[in-house]
Amino acid sequence: MHIVVCVKAVPSTTEVKMDPKTNTIVRDGRQAVVNPFDATGLEIALHIKDECAAAGDPCRVTVLSMGIPDTERLLRDCIARGADDGLLLSDRAFAGADTLATTYALSRGIACMDEPADLVVCGKMAVDGDTAQIGPELAGALDVPCVVDVQRLHGIVGSTLALERATDAGRELVEVDLPAVITVAKDAAQLRMPSIAGVLAAEGVPIAVKTAADVDADPARTGLSGSPTQVVRSFVPERASEAVCVTGDAAEQAAALVELIEEACR
Ligand code: FAD
Q1: Of 121-135, 144-158, 240-254, which gets the smallest average pLDDT?
Q2: Which end of the chain is more exposed for a tag (fewer CB within 10 A), N or C?
Q3: How far apart are CA 9 and CA 22, in angstroms?
């Protein structure tokens, strides 16, 4: 079993800095952390690895990220917690990617791994970009089924995963045959702490850093130039609100409210 966990480096602060020229997020690595949803995804992968180990089956967990060179630090932390190896896609050619170009780069990274991925685990969403598109897009790119918003892992029997996912109508139990992509909710699990032995061992694990050319990525499909969607302008909305107290009986309040709305619409 080979599980690939997609890990995105996100700012640890809500004060996201934007590049005014390209309208893309400034990623200087400072205070970057593992996207909290991906930390959950890693724990779910490690849990499957534990179950495989108990059954005497081999299982390898690879952490994959597209990001700046400093992201290597975060991948190494994932290895200290139990992942086996890491692949970092890092190249100026990847910069400014929208979700489609990000998916393409990640799918090229997966395609170039020495072992095919049986399961790809993504967070349900990244706390900065927030689109929740990468997991389903990746399933499309790999042509495998996708289960989104996984709340709980029930177990694995052979090559079938039993999962609980959230839907608008409630919870649903799903069985999916591997290979597949799943996206996980933040509260589905709590990432384990690294052990001292894990931290020391992780220091010696080489993390592969690959460029767009290394993974045979088509330059027309990567980065800002390969992104069909582009941010025209980004800004922090101004908060301008004033409270008006509407008094009287219900009919008077309704009439006053209508007047206020009509006035606002003029
Ligand atoms: P999501 O789909 O929310 O992430 C889901 C999961 O995918 C993550 O939990 C993680 O497991 C995986 N994942 C995501 N990114 C990576 C990565 N780099 N490496 C490894 N795993 C990853 N995109 C558009 O398509 N159009 C836009 O107009 C657009 N505008 C944006 C505006 C702002 C201000 C920002 C911050 C981002 C915008 N993005 C836009 C998204 C942006 O380009 C993304 O950061 C990137 O494409 C991933 O999308 P996401 O963050 O929404 O990921």
Answers
A1: 240-254
A2: C
A3: 20
